[in-house]
Amino acid sequence: MKLVLKNTNNFSNSRLNVIAKEKPCLDSAWHYHPEYELLYISKSTGIRFVGDSVAHFKPGDLVLVGPNLPHLWRNDVSYYDTDSERVVKTVVIKFYKNFIGDNTFDAPEFAEINRMLSDAKYGISFGRNISNQLKEELLSLTDIKHTEQLIKLLDILYKLSITNQRQLLSSSDMRQYTPKGAHRIDKVLRFISDNYSKTIALEDVSDIACMTPNSFCRFFKKKTNKSFTGFLNEVRIRHASRLLVQENFPVNDVCFLVGYNSITNFNKQFKKIMGSTPKQYREAI
After folding, report:
1. DSSP string of 25-51?
2. Contact status, residue 223 vs residue 211, Cβ threshold 8 Å
3. Are the CB atoms for 73 and 24 separated by under 8 Å?
4. Average pLDDT of the chain, as a whole number
5. Distance between CA 31 and CA 71 in Å, rounded?
6. Higher pLDDT, 136 or 26
7. Which of 27, 119, 175, 285 is most solvent-facing, going by the fewest CB within 10 Å?
8. What residues are paired with 168 via a beta bridge?
9. pLDDT digits (tens, 9 = 90+) for 5-15
10. Which of 27, 30, 35 is nearest to 7 (CA)?
11. Which residues contact 264 (CB under 8 A, 6 or more apart)?
């Protein structure tokens, strides 16, 4: 899972591209690109990584990612089974800031959009209400002419810019301008994503990165803004939160399904990350 600078000139030289995707693992690698990306999940579940943010995604997820901000949407393991019938449906809108014209958003009339686009360097997640309101407009973008897409996207961005239903994702500015060290973090994230339910030792991921444990810890912190242990706990707890909502497994079973050997540690990490105990979280949903 290699962090790469995507060259989108191969499939279009347009300032705006709208793509409908129906394949698992929405992105093949931890990556970044010079365009903004507005991604709407119609059908799909998994874990998304945006900068140093780790969160579960599900239908209705709507996120805006700024230029050069590393990100990855990765489906649950079950999506990759050869006989899997699980469906993925998403709309990915990639655009440059000048998609509607040079310096357009510098005008006072577009101040709200301009501020939102600036905040997108951290990644922005939008609430379920505004996501549902815009669902049909987002899905229709793939079926209309390019001129209509430009106009419709401008309208969508305005509606998103004036809603209070948005949350910044990454806790720091993690924009990338060079792929140095990308292959290492890519391999590590893939390994964690695929094996979080098993015992993962620091030595395991250090070997994958071809580094000593101490060097790897410094490298991982620099690339993700989090310790390896803290990052692994977030991945596990985000998957646990999904199981608690979507399945009827007892809390003790969920603990072991996401890789914990101690229910006490599981409860401690869950409350630290989610703000409540697993039982309280399930009852509140």
Report:
1. SSSSSSEE-SSEEEEEEEE--EEEEET
2. no
3. no
4. 89
5. 6
6. 136
7. 285
8. 124
9. 665 544 444 89
10. 35
11. none
